[in-house]
């Protein structure tokens, strides 16, 4: 899909820099949401402004993006980009690929209908639909490396330290 030499040329100086200067590899990514009208908020992604709201299963009108969908979209996007980068790096013959992320939610937990029902995804499945003539061993290697280097997948699979902080701005 992409030129292997070009990707290597771009990444080699970065790898060398991070190897000699590990703290340069630490980058803080940020997201911001501004509470909007009704029960919604506006999220500025890297390329667009998205309005997030309640999922229809919790009373939303379906006109706003659901944050659960956005999480799955982030997973699918990250896995797709990683798959393509890994395929390029290992000279894998990948003609086309589609990545699907599906998550099972029990909205009884979110709506406090059942105290024993979990809040959050019960399970998430990541599926790759690949167009390739590569053998099964190479395909498994591609998927294993994609799983290993996909930031969103690894964050969800291993968990991460999560904190909640607040900043107060009284109004009159």
Mind explaining what this structure looks like?
There is one protein chain. The protein has 172 residues and is α+β, with helices and mostly antiparallel strands. 38% of the residues lie in helices and 23% in strands. It has helices at 4-20, 67-89, 107-110, 136-149, 151-158; strands at 33-35, 40-44, 49-53, 65-66, 94-105, 121-132. The chain has a 4-stranded mixed sheet with strand order 1-2-3-4. α2 packs across α4. The protein is globular, with a radius of gyration of 20 Å. It starts with a helix and ends in a 14-residue tail after the last helix. The mean pLDDT is 88.
How do you describe this structure in short?
With 172 residues, the chain is α+β, with helices and mostly antiparallel strands. Helices cover 38% and strands 23% of the residues. The protein has a 4-stranded mixed sheet. A two-stranded antiparallel ribbon has the order 5-6.
Seen as an oligomer or otherwise, the chain set is: single chain
Low-confidence stretches: none
Helical segment count: 5
Structural class comes to alpha+beta
What is the molecular shape?
Answer: globular
Q: Alpha-carbon distance between the termini?
A: 57 Å
Rounded Rg: 20 Å
Provide the succession of SSEs. Answer: HEEEEHEHEHH
Q: Enumerate the strands of the largest sheet in spatial order, edge to edge or round the barrel.
A: 1-2-3-4
Largest sheet report: 4 strands, mixed
Number-wise, the strands total 6
Beta-strand residue fraction: 15-25%
| Share of residues in helices | 25-40%
Mean pLDDT: 88
């Amino acid at each position: 899909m992409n030129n292997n030499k070009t990707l290597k040329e771009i990444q080699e100086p970065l790898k060398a820099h991070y190897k000699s200067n590990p703290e340069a590899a630490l980058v803080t990514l940020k997201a911001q949401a501004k509470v909007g009208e009704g029960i919604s908020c506006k999220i500025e992604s890297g390329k667009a402004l998205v309005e997030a709201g309640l999922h229809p299963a919790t009373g939303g009108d379906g006109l706003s993006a659901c944050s659960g969908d956005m999480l799955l979209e982030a997973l699918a996007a990250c896995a797709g980009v990683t798959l393509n980068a890994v395929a390029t790096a290992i000279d894998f013959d990948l003609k086309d690929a589609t990545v699907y992320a599906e998550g099972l939610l029990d909205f009884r937990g979110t709506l406090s209908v059942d105290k024993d029902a979990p809040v959050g995804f019960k399970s998430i499945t990541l599926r790759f639909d690949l167009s390739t003539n590569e053998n099964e061993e190479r395909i498994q290697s591609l998927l294993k490396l994609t799983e290993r280097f996909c930031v969103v997948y690894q964050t969800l699979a291993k968990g991460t330290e999560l904190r909640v902080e607040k900043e107060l701005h009284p109004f009159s």
